[in-house]
Amino acid sequence: MALKRSSGYQAPAFPFTMLAHLVALAVIALVLVWLLHFREGLAFRSDDKAKIFNVHPLLMLLGFVLISGEAIMAYKTVPTIRKRQKLFHLLLHLIAFVAGVLGIYAVFKFHHDLRFPHMYSLHSWLGMSTISLFGLQWLFSFFSFWYPRAQASTRARLAPWHAVFGLAIFFMAILSAETGLVEKFIFLGLHRSQEALILNFTGLLVLVFAVSVGLTVLLPSA
Questions:
Q1: Which spans in 40-151 are helix H?
Q2: Which parts form a coiled-coil structure per UniProt (predicted)?
Q3: Which of 32, 63, 65, 94 is the most buried (most CB within 10 A)?
């Protein structure tokens, strides 16, 4: 599917692909500055429980959201044959899923250690729904498109639905990330400060990244 103007002109995907890559780098920089400079740092095990929590936004934003976005764009960004593009797409999504699972483990450990309740917020509901659907989508896609693979006619019928559900799950991940940033902003009691600006700009850039990924998929390569 491609977006077309009335004249028949098709806007190319390349500018939006480049924008997505640049925005991803900016998000990485902002998240690292936030967690390493303004927060307590990172650790899976620590007496400072905030360090354990910080692993959660690191892995969910940089691992789950950004890498899954790059995986979605792989068919437009990896200059190789179709089968290798498919493998790259598959492996990047697997890395994103592993990062997401580890990120969820970190926040569950943080809540357990401090005896906080689990799964009480909209953010947590969205996040758990997203990672569950993501895992199911990956498994279904692996067996349908990679090994042992469905018949060619079946794959052709499944491919559009695979793309639609993949984008839907990706935007669920974006929504989960945005609600998580808002939730953390409120919990920290931030107002007008450098840290508040970093969180707000991170949220805006994550949204720009999501739109850029979507346009990269919808628009033609050239």
A1: 49-57, 66-72, 74-77, 82-113, 122-141
A2: none
A3: 65
